[in-house]
Protein: Methyltransferase domain-containing protein
Organism: Methanosarcina acetivorans
Amino acid sequence: MVDKMDYVHGYSDRENSRLCDQASTLTMLLHHDTIYPSGSRVLEAGCGVGAQTVILARNSPKASITSIDISGESVEKARLLTEKEGVTNVSFQVADIFDLPFEEETFDHVFICFVLEHLKNPLDALLSVKKVLKKEGTITVIEGDHGSSYFYPRSDEAMQTIKCLINIQELLGGNSLIGRELYPLLNRAGFKSVSISPRMVYVDSSKPDLVEGFTKNTFNAMVEGVREQALELKMIDEKTWTKGINDLYRAAGQEGTFCYTFFKGTATK
Amino acid sequence: MVDKMDYVHGYSDRENSRLCDQASTLTMLLHHDTIYPSGSRVLEAGCGVGAQTVILARNSPKASITSIDISGESVEKARLLTEKEGVTNVSFQVADIFDLPFEEETFDHVFICFVLEHLKNPLDALLSVKKVLKKEGTITVIEGDHGSSYFYPRSDEAMQTIKCLINIQELLGGNSLIGRELYPLLNRAGFKSVSISPRMVYVDSSKPDLVEGFTKNTFNAMVEGVREQALELKMIDEKTWTKGINDLYRAAGQEGTFCYTFFKGTATK
């Protein structure tokens, strides 16, 4: 089962829709301070289905963005999405982040969002993009950290379902706890002036948009997405799973609260 | 052992110094937006040794602050501290938060910081202070949440030492995971316009003041403070404890990162 999928979130239509919901809810929190100047060349490494690409391109309408992804199918979806959204400053390419088809020091800026967490060797990915980045160019990395999730009412079963997601991502060679690790990673890759900014999402029922857009449709949907694998791998039994997922939705209820933190790292070459 | 102490942090001199270190490091993060108008009457319920009192009084120099605590010894220390610091707008009183010696609707504002986490029934405390609060008066509550701590490099042993702190506080009738619960608590107490603002502390070695002032001298010192109880209660063995504490200090090292979140709730009567 696990060998068949390389990407923990899969490539289903529900998943594409989830990634786009997530992008619009979190846009301001994650992206408001990433604005590239007119004429600058930006590499988006790992664009997936283009959920972040559209935001990135809109925030920097006069920058020239090159978005790559290893999956041809995803690149095609990203291309269609940007066309549909009327975004014109992005060119797409199917390419491997570990073997980039660009000259050294091609780009003024590199942007990586929700990618390192899926890679077996994120440090090599950083070293690879560093090569194609100009001297004094900047890198921006945004990653989540599933270990930053906690909620009220507390529930051991709900924590176990989250642990399944973390473990499955780890079995696939990824690290969903990478957010807390951006500081040492960027430093080890030899970047300068590394600065990490945590972006915490706190949700209670006074914020119904976040309850729907983040807790339910982003986080809970992501956990629910590994149900089959978790049961098949006997990481959890069905009864515990069902209770855990119910408890995650209870934390999205009237009396519930939910916390999650993204990390945004910036540095220069 | 546990019966002898009511307050998880104890009353030692090292502890008083830790509470004051903590207060100055976190001042801006927690207190910058609490400023009471000239002439307003403010109740600080549970002032302890006065670490927050001094900040509160300085930020609102023309408000009239009444600070109470159940411990006469703490109130005396708080009084000495404010005298030493030249603060003159605070009067102190030994009093029980559950049985306040004030008329109903006496105060314009109530301020509670790091108190509810130590109480067996925080809801009753909120109902009690609500009585002495005027209609349309505000309440401000600041609490931590030890379950919000995570760090790099990860360590199961370090997590176990934190769990000891959480469990000992629970044995004493407290709840060190109360931060995430402020929203339902304030609502259940019947307050209106409840708004919760998380205040996350993210520390890496680019912030040496926070490494010293928060990770080492506040958080790690707090965990280390329950060593004897944890070992005596056989919650953990000595080898695991030592490894765990070493790992907490490793997270305060060159490659380490440390995260903790406080919650600040405000509401009106």
